[in-house]
Specification:
Belongs to the peptidase S10 family. GO terms for molecular function: serine-type carboxypeptidase activity. Probable carboxypeptidase. The protein is built from 21 helices and 14 strands. The chain is of the alpha/beta class. The chain folds into two domains: 85 residues; 307 residues, Rossmann fold (3-Layer(aba) Sandwich). Strands 1, 2, 3, 4, 7, 8, 9, 10, 11, 12, 13 and 14 form a twelve-stranded mixed β-sheet that branches. A two-stranded antiparallel sheet has the order 5-6. The protein starts with a helix and ends with a helix.
Length: 507
């Protein structure tokens, strides 16, 4: 047996032994009620809860089956979705919608799929890239259900989204890591396992994208996303910043990055699970006391993991997720993406229209994806990233803040799985030159249309926004507030009073 495998088995056995010695029998019973802790089971459960049924577990294809043409590294086409109604006289060129594939240079045979939607407002608007989490879920989830230009109606037609982020930005969606969505490879060695691989792929893609679209290269550039993208985003921002400093290729005008209900600093965020669950009435005080006995073991496991994604990180995944599983064993049918809601059986959200729409021949022909399957969420990609899961991605953020690159962390107040409390704690605990001032800064209401849509705290390059009446997917639950947040943040006016408040003050 190889040395890394022995190390993993030792670490896993030791941590499990300590974990179960720390837990009383009632916790163990609760964990049995929560079901299997195997990652493959977790991944498939996550997918079924969204009513998704991908044809395969990962987009690794037979190279002889691919019908896409060979050619330049980036192959892109303008397109119009066949069911999209556009005003008379608007051509495909005027629409400014693109779909394409980029052949990743640091891979055996990987191709990354993306959408690009020019701003409905102005081509001078910032370029914003969105990354969906999972890990292993397609960014088309956000495109059609959160902040994209349109939503899918029950009759499979597209309806323009009044609050799509393309109303304030030139908007990119990428299917990543490889094997997710329409992104694919013919070689399993291209499946990614850590943030270095993920961020390098995204950086290489950006270089090719801006070479193809030089008219957008000087626009302000912002990275956004949610959930497990709390890992992707800081790593990607650091990679772009590093590339700019080293004068690698095209300079990318990185101005900021935003993390929505993300997982960024697991040691702090896993410790917050029981506090949030107790505060929201998901568990009782007696449950809280019992489950909290696992917290010190989780903290020790994460310390063994460190920040470099070693094999011991996989052991910490098993140990620490016993905290969350213990809570959910007691939560019944509570929707952990939004504790106000209940799941019906195994169904928490119904995103099945996305798969039905993207599997239509007319749609696939419009996109130019050939016979590549659409893998909405990949259990294989999910499991491949387990060694990365417990890494602390907060450590690379202070350098970015010191260089004036803005960070906005926002979180819907009713999400349990990446809750606002854990996110607020790591943001406040982060050590940088403005930490004391940020901690001391007042919380102010975030006003949209004269009503409080959230509570905001800012200092310098850092902002934290707790969004009212929203769960895990803020742009889906509060689309108007989310668009207003994007507009103000990219313009540098997030903490300014709203226009109506200014008018009242002037009067």
């Amino acid at each position: 047996m190889a040395k890394p495998q022995l190390l993993f088995l030792f670490s896993f056995s030791l941590l499990c032994l300590i974990s179960f010695s720390a837990a009383d029998s009632s916790i163990i019973d609760d964990l049995r009620l929560a079901g299997s802790s195997f990652p493959s089971v977790h991944a498939k459960k996550l997918i079924r809860e969204l009513n998704l049924f991908p044809k395969g577990e990962v987009n690794v294809v037979d190279e002889h089956r691919v019908s896409l043409p060979e050619g330049p590294k980036l192959v892109e086409k303008r397109f119009k979705f066949p069911t999209l109604e556009v005003p008379g006289g608007v051509s495909v060129e005027d629409l400014g919608h693109y779909a394409g594939y980029y052949k990743l240079p640091n891979s055996h045979d990987a191709r990354m799929f993306y959408f690009f939607f020019e701003s409905r407002n102005s081509k001078k608007d910032p370029v914003v890239i969105w990354l969906t989490g999972g890990p292993g879920c397609s960014s088309e989830l956000a495109l059609f259900y959160e902040n994209g230009p349109f939503t899918i109606a029950d009759n499979m037609s597209l309806v323009w989204n009044e609050y799509g982020w393309d109303k304030a930005s030139n908007l990119l969606y990428v299917d990543q890591p490889i094997g997710t969505g329409f992104s694919y490879s013919s070689d399993r060695r291209d499946i990614r396992h850590n943030e270095d691989e993920v961020s390098n792929d995204l950086y290489d893609f950006l270089q090719a994208f801006f070479a193809e679209h030089p008219e957008f290269a000087k626009n302000d550039f912002f990275i956004t996303g949610e959930s497990y993208a709390g890992h992707y985003i800081p790593a990607f921002a650091a990679r772009v910043h590093r590339g700019n400093k080293a004068k690698e290729g095209i300079h990318i005008n990185l101005k900021g990055f935003a993390i929505g209900n993300g997982l960024t600093d697991p040691a702090i965020q896993y410790k917050a699970y029981t506090d949030y669950a107790l505060d929201m009435g998901v568990i009782k005080k007696s449950d809280y006391d019992r489950i909290n006995k696992l917290v010190p073991v989780c903290e020790m496991a994460i310390k063994l993991c460190g920040t470099d994604g070693t094999i011991s990180c996989m052991a910490s995944y098993f140990v620490c997720n016993n905290i969350f599983n213990g809570i959910m064993a007691l939560a019944g049918d509570t929707n952990y993406y939004d504790v106000r809601k209940k799941c019906e059986g195994s169904l928490c959200y119904d995103f099945s229209n996305m798969e039905s729409f993207l599997n239509k021949k007319s749609v696939r022909d419009a996109l130019g994806v050939g016979n590549i399957d659409f893998v909405s969420c990949s259990p294989t990609v999910y499991q491949a990233m387990l060694v990365d899961w417990m890494r602390n991605l907060e450590v690379g953020i202070p350098v970015l803040l010191e260089d004036g690159i803005k960070l906005l962390v926002y979180a819907g107040e009713y999400d349990l799985i990446c809750n606002w409390l854990g996110n607020s704690r790591w943001v406040h605990a982060m050590e940088w030159s403005g930490q004391k001032e940020f901690v001391a800064s007042p919380e102010v209401p975030f006003i949209v249309d004269g009503a409080e849509a959230g509570v905001l705290k800012t200092h310098g390059a850092l902002g934290f926004l707790k969004v009212h009446d929203a769960g895990h997917m803020v742009p889906m639950d509060q689309p108007k507030a989310a668009l207003e947040m994007l507009k103000r943040w990219t313009k540098g006016t997030l903490s300014d009073a709203s226009d109506s408040e200014k008018l009242v003050a002037e009067m």
